[in-house]
UniProtKB/TrEMBL annotation:
This is Putative 4-hydroxy-4-methyl-2-oxoglutarate aldolase. Its cofactor is a divalent metal cation; Mg(2+). It is an enzyme of class 4 (lyase). Homotrimer. Its EC number is 4.1.1.112, 4.1.3.17. Keywords: Magnesium, Metal-binding, Methyltransferase, Transferase. Belongs to the class II aldolase/RraA-like family. GO terms for molecular function: 4-hydroxy-4-methyl-2-oxoglutarate aldolase activity; metal ion binding; methyltransferase activity; NADP binding; oxaloacetate decarboxylase activity. It catalyses: 4-hydroxy-4-methyl-2-oxoglutarate = 2 pyruvate; oxaloacetate + H(+) = pyruvate + CO2.
Amino acid sequence: MAILGLGEAGSLYSAGFQAGGWQVNGFDPADVATPAGVDRFDSVADAVRDAQLVLSLTNGKVAARAAADAAPHLSEGAVYVDMNSASPAVKAQVADAVSAADGVLFADVAVIGSVPAHGSKTALVISGSGSARAAEFFAALGAPVEDIAGRPGDASRRKLLRSSFMKGLGALIVEATEAGRASGAEQWVRDQIAAELADGYTGLDRLHSGTVKHAQRRAIETVASVDLLDEIGVAPVLARAAAEVHQRLADADGRSNEELLAAYAGLPVANIGDGRGRMGMLDSGIRSLWKGARAVGRARTVWTRAGDNKVLHEAVAKVRPGEVIVINGHGDLNRALMGELIAERARSSGCVGMVIDGAARDIDALAEIGFGVWARAVSPAGPYKDGPGHIDIPVAVGGVVCNPGDLVVADDDGVIVVPAAEAFTSLAAGRAVEADEAQRRAAIVAARSAS
């Protein structure tokens, strides 16, 4: 057999199959340790050649590409098993890629439970043309298997339905624990949660640590769960919030977030918008107050009464490096919500810009210090300072809802808000648009030169 992807899950399944008497080949382009007993190859082709069984344990984003790379080299009668957390549509793409090989069966395998806790004996749901064969292989390892036959994606659909609860529960536990810590009552909150769980602190710690440790992979899974609920007509309110928590955790280490923001640097708002189907761009009334301004950062949100900036001062005091302050000022054009002094204070805390559905002032000074502000108007009149207002809640700005932690990109063309859970996929889509436009422009220039 062959395993594509030799991370934690790949290592555990390789150990299980070796204990069952299988010879295990492996492939992984990443610099990860080779599991004991695995013959590691430098290419997918060499790893899968002559294998009766192939397990894909890459991740949902590259599952279809891995299958396409493997398909020409699969043996007749082999079973190709995709175990990645992905949407039913991705599973169908993988099955189509594998079907290009004669006599190859496909199994969509959804992992229902914790692989670190149960290893190769973790419960599974299986569908697809090769479900019966795959069920035999995994059952022989001692795994509880539910063979639902059906189409590629049916097993994944079951898992995503379960994920809408399980991943949401993990996200809720993390958020509640963080709130307890911030209030000086973390252990009390933990006691309350553990008292409601059948396995108490064991379950609490498993759900908490798993959510934090695997946040990036689970962010992809929770987004797929959101898409499924949308598809079947159920409003994914809590599922979408869970996806945002997972993505926030994935970005929690400064390096990850810095790398993401750096990757967006220089990518035009227009390209990002095209890559997102022209969704998420603020209306054209909100524009840069000085030419050449650009900002990329996470949203720190503010909702204030029209013409009043009392709560903005609270947001400036809490802003973190790499954040953009996004303000719903009710579109008021008569009083500036910020100017040079607030900009200087925000910039000193690492704030990289402000987006205001309202007015600002001191635009020459803003340009001089290089602080980007996108607003609906310029007004010399200062604001009231009476309140009320709120920070760190969803706000409506320029016809778009912006949640705390969403990615905000702004340039001379305008502003776009990218939901936190879609930051990585939107980056890839925007880069693809940028590359396509560069190629088309080069062709136009070449044709003009030739003529």
